[in-house]
Write a structure and sequence with these properties.
This protein is α+β, with helices and mostly antiparallel strands and 82 residues long. Helices cover 26% and strands 27% of the residues. Strands 1-2-3-4 form a four-stranded antiparallel beta sheet.
Length: 82
């Protein structure tokens, strides 16, 4: 007899269910990054090149960085919040 699954697949969830599920996951990832003193990394309008990112650290410091495509070395372009 086939097993009955009690969880919906992601494409079966409503928009509200997806939002609730992902909010919890994102919150857990952010908390883990903070506990490891790692930045949250994202892009915004300041990131005008493919290799530019925003690094937001747990202490509030926020930097616009550029990452070398060949070596992955990061260079701070601008400190947005110190």
């Amino acid at each position: 007899m086939p097993q009955v699954r009690n969880r919906k697949l992601i494409f079966e969830l409503s928009a509200r269910e997806k939002a609730r599920k992902f909010a919890g996951l994102v919150s857990a990832v952010v908390d883990k990054a903070k506990s490891m003193n790692q930045p949250i990394i994202y892009k915004n309008d300041l990131c005008i090149k493919r290799n530019m990112f925003i690094h937001q650290y747990p202490d509030g410091r926020t930097e616009l960085i550029e990452q070398d495509i060949d070596t992955s070395v990061e260079r701070i372009i601008q400190v947005l919040h110190g």
